[in-house]
Write a structure and sequence with these properties.
84 residues, 1 helix, extended, alpha+beta
């Protein structure tokens, strides 16, 4: 029998000012999952080892294509969306 996917014990949807949505889910094993509308994204910052004084991890994703200037692609996307 295949393992059943773990059910989130917390889930919250955040609506961003530009209409995109971010869903944050927390699981009993301590893991956290993020689901974001408006693909594509690239991981632009990951500080996972944390700061021993603050006990924090930071993840940043930016709109764009892999291997490209993410913010430039986002600006192009916004301009194209506004011209329609």
């Amino acid at each position: 029998m295949a393992d059943q996917p773990m059910k989130a014990h917390f889930s919250e949807i955040v609506a961003l000012p530009d209409g995109r949505k971010v869903r944050v889910a927390a699981y009993p094993d301590g893991s956290i999952r993020f689901r974001v509308d408006g693909l594509p994204y690239v991981l632009t910052e990951a500080y996972l080892s944390g700061n021993p004084e603050k006990d924090q991890a930071i993840l940043k994703i930016s709109p764009g294509k892999q291997g490209s200037n993410a913010s430039h692609n986002y600006v192009e996307w916004l301009e194209g969306k506004q011209s329609r």
